[in-house]
Amino acid sequence: MIITVQIFLLMMVLAGVGIILFTRNIVHAAYALCLTLLGIAGVYVLVMSELLAVVQIMLYAGGVVILLAFGVMMTNRLRGEKVLSGSNNKWIGRIISVGVFAGLCYLISISPFQTTSVEKNEDQIAQIGVSFLTDHIVAFELIAFVLLVALVGAAYLAKNAADE
Amino acid sequence: MISFAFYLAFLLIFVVFAVYAERKTAAFIQNRLGPMEVGPKGILQTVADLLKMLQKEDIRASAVDIIPYLLAPFIVFAAVFTGFAVLPVNADLSGSTITSGVFFLLAIVSLDVLGILMAGWASNNKYSLYGAMRSVAQIISYEVPLGLSVLCVIIISGTLDLHQMSVLQSGGILSWYIISHPVLIIPFFIFFISGLAESNRTPFDLPESESELIGGYHTEYSGFRWGIFMLSEYGMMLLLSILASILFFGGWNSPMEKIANGPIWSTFWLLSKSLLLIFVQMWVRWTLPRLRVDQLMSLSWKYLTPISIVMLFVCALWKLWLIG
Amino acid sequence: MIQISGFGTVLLFIVGGIGFLMITLLVGKLLRPNNPTTEKQTTYESGEEPSGTAWGQFNVRFYIVALIFLLFEAELIFLFPWATVFGDEQLIAESDGLWAQFSMIETFIFIGILLVGLAYVWSKGMLEWVRPKPKASDFKSRIPESAYKDFK
Fold this sequence. Notes:
The complex is a heterotrimer.
Chain A: H1 2-22, H2 26-46, H3 50-75, H4 90-110, H5 124-133, H6 137-163
Chain B: H1 2-29, H2 45-55, H3 66-83, H4 101-109, H5 112-123, H6 126-157, H7 162-168, H8 177-180, H9 185-198, H10 210-213, H11 223-247, H12 263-285, H13 293-323
Chain C: H1 2-31, H2 60-86, H3 89-94, H4 98-123, H5 145-150
């Protein structure tokens, strides 16, 4: 049963990635990104990380994708045509992506990931809540600052765009 | 498994009767009779409509973007229907046992925005796209006060599990959160108003305002595909009403502490509380006029969001005071 | 394994919901007629011939709303774990009531910082929606105002 779900999730993630890579329609690519993100949320469920899965669905699939889709629909200067992407600088792009991929693979291979099976926690969310307010309080408050800075910056940029 | 069968069956029966009830309520408020022809007092009108809908030709404009166009109704319905997975059915049947309960519900329901945007964009129709844009902007704006008002309840209860939350409210009408914790009265109103906006109901039905946008994001859909959007809209109403009755009105608890507590009775209490809230939604629909877009946005961001943040503070202080 | 089986129910709802729709659409396919014509397949535009496609540039306000929403959603996500442990009686008893006060002050700072953000966005007019300004007509009727008063 679990293995079926694993294969299904893998297919979901790969299908999303494949569509993003090979479609020329940017709106389709945005939807396909959602497929990938939901697949990853499923992977989080399988590794017993429930909170992350819910955050993934709420913030990425329900928020970031909408923002992306809006962005595509907003910036489209070509009236009345499908939003298509072309490909330029192919060789630079290939070199950079292979480099990033190799770098990530190297980082993952040297990282000391815990590969033993994790005991299921009854109160995972509560534990995270407690550690936010005790051990990681500085990070918790910094997040608020980061969000504030992001909000101010976004508002500033958007204001300029709206005035144009 | 049982909760799946129960909620699927109940949703279908609910939609059939809710559409009829909606039309009868409208008729009553506007001092006319409403559907009277099919069956006694017109009670089978929706069944007739449903049969007609199944036989309608599936017209697809040649200009649509076909894959997202066909996928969109499935996404909208699946997002709303999956929300039912974490709801308890009665005192013995708790639905899905995931610990993130209501948090998961809010997350999965927010995905229906994606389906709506997809439908509007793929239809390649100006009305559809305007409707979808308005709808998405509206739903995401009201998600913030909705989430904040749910947070107020979570502060009081200390659990995300909806079944657990109902257990905590057992013991008669006086233990229901809205009565035992009067600070939750304002969050309830915020929740209810945001719920109306989330399910695109009047006075927040700008996305499908017939007089300007024909049908909004589902203008290009016909037959049963259109029916799926309607099903999802009524499903959303039902979901948010059941959620409201669990969060604020004791869920499946009977109003009398010792009387009427069995499994069937507790299902009855849960559903009757929710149906009462749905009646209020219909009442609102036929009483209030539609908002303007700028009023809609300022209601969410300038009134409901600040008020619900203040209520969050108030609820935290109340809880602290209760603990002593 | 409890957690997986909890999500198993969720999976059942997703698969079952989609399966139900598919069956119904299939039944519909058997019942409904299918004779498309070019006329039928034109996009609906209030009876006119549709001009161009609908895909075009949209008002940037929608993007701004989505941005503000995203940041508040992120805030909301951090508040959910806090809300579950805030009133935890065991933790409060262990720390002589310090826990509740401490966690409340921390979170009040957290929300306060974001309220500053909301106030900033508000003061910059990002929450205003563009709204058409109706022009007052300067048409003057030749019938004097008093004529309406005299008319009974």
